[in-house]
Predict the structure.
Amino acid sequence: MSKKLWIWTVVFILIGGGIMFYGMSYNPLAWAQGFVSFTEPNNEPIPWGLLVIGYIFFGVIGTGVSTYNSLYELFNKNHKERNPFDKVKLRNEWLALAVLIPGLIMVFASVYKPASAINIYLSFRSTSRIAWNGVLYVLVGIGIIAEIIALIGEKVKEEGKIPGILKLIVDIDALIVGYAILAELILDANLGAVFGYLSTWVYEFGPFMPILFVAASFYSGIAMISFITPLYSWLRRPTSGGGNVGPEGDKTVFKVLARDGLLATITIGFLILWWIWLTATNQETLPWAELLINGSWSSTFWVGLVLVGIIIPIVLYSVAYKKESKGLLFASSIFVLLGWFVLVTLADVIPQAISWYYTISPVSPPGSTWVYELRSDFNGVAQYTQLPFAVSSYDLVWFAGSTLFLLGVYTLGVLLLPLEEEERPKHLWIFK
Amino acid sequence: MDQCLGCKACMAACAIENQTPFWEQLWRTHVEDLEIGEFPNTQRMFVPRLCMQCENPPCYFVCPTGATQIVDGGIVVVDEYKCMGCLYCVEACPYGARYFYTYDDIQKAKKYYGENLIHVVPHVDKCTFCYGTAPDGTNTPACVRTCPGGSRVFGCLDDPNSEVSVLVNTGQAVVLNPQLNTQPKVFYVFNRQSGRYVQGGDNS
């Protein structure tokens, strides 16, 4: 098994890394400074495309996995037997970090000059949501890594030979977990705020977006754990305990995941309902709502989000909860992850999808509106113009490369770290 | 607005002065060619557009790297070396005044402008009122110097006797999208006739 896993790990790291190397035009230094031709196109009507969608997709899943896992850890700190995830918490935390990695890669790939991102820290501008993203990503990364070290440190402590610094980290474990939860929730809210802060975009998207993204972190994070945990239950040999935590323990885990997944999906459904309702009943924002309700994005919205992302998961999670079925839980998680991808796509595209229109009092009586776009001749055009969304080949290369890279990075952690209950750290405190 | 001929000399002057990527139809200033109203009550209008040099510039507030800066006179400029190309400012500008100047644009600029390039690293580009490139002592942008119809007026808003101050203080000059509270420093003097045409036909 270990040999196959090593092959899997090396192959996916090489494939994903190779694709990303191609995305750098085989010249990482030039790419980092923007001196390559194969890059983001600068003439897309919707500038923020697949890579922005991708980094939010993975970023929110990663933080969601950690937040959900850490909340159970924190609130059951003194009663570990009450934490259904106690025996898989370390694996979940590694999953969170691994999922964040493609998100981070796509953050850098989505800008023209990744090396210049250092200026976020050298000349920080506190009014910029992206500047805060830069800080929060670091804080969240530190939090998750510290939590992983602390959880592994607990195992070392049980054997009674814990080094000084590791002992300190284990002693402040609860503080680290609480810090990680706080940083993750603020990062999720801030990611949402990126899509609601701009004066060019409709105002109703503003404060709503952080709330939506915090809820979505639970929605997508629980789905990711619900995807991985049944997989382990199927793949792991009976000799290692029959799944994750033994047959009965597994059932409890699946039931808790189905219950929490159901609650998170209902929350997202509730928020989406109000998003559409309020947007559609305000004359200023109606054009954006129409895009979703009966416009060009309506099939994506109704089928991709409402049906696949909300209604089907609610049904499947409910039955999975009732029957304690890992198969249905697994199926629910796939639908939710698809729905989350659609949701973040809509959250990214819809605010950008209609050109801003001007009303200039001296020349704009009722019924006449000027339309402004960067490149068009404006004659005979409608009140506003819908802008087309396109996925560039550069975006596709980086999205595919970083996602394949994730498959290798995740199993690399499985191979090197003592993520399972029966595994013990031996080398450099934390490695197997 | 009456005096704009739609000749686009301002665009040509700006492109030469600031080496903008005209080969991609990207401009620091351009002229919108509008037809307003419905036949027979129509009118053609030319609307010069450029960065509004806002007093509260959304592009400045969203810039994560500090590349967008406000210099003397309230002119909004971009530090090309600090810009990382996240396009947050492009998204934030309600006037669509920004675009990205790519590596390929730099290579093409060498063909048109020779080795004496203004832009040497990729960055978000925008109108700077020809900050640093206007002839000594004039501070006047290339578009203003070139405009054959005298459509563009450039001056100091702090000087109550300047032509722009008179136009603004007497209410003849207005800003686009005042409700956004970006407080632009570019103003427009509109043709009174256009208001009558588009309102439905009282041309008497």
Observations:
- Residues 357-381 of chain A have pLDDT under 50 and may be disordered.
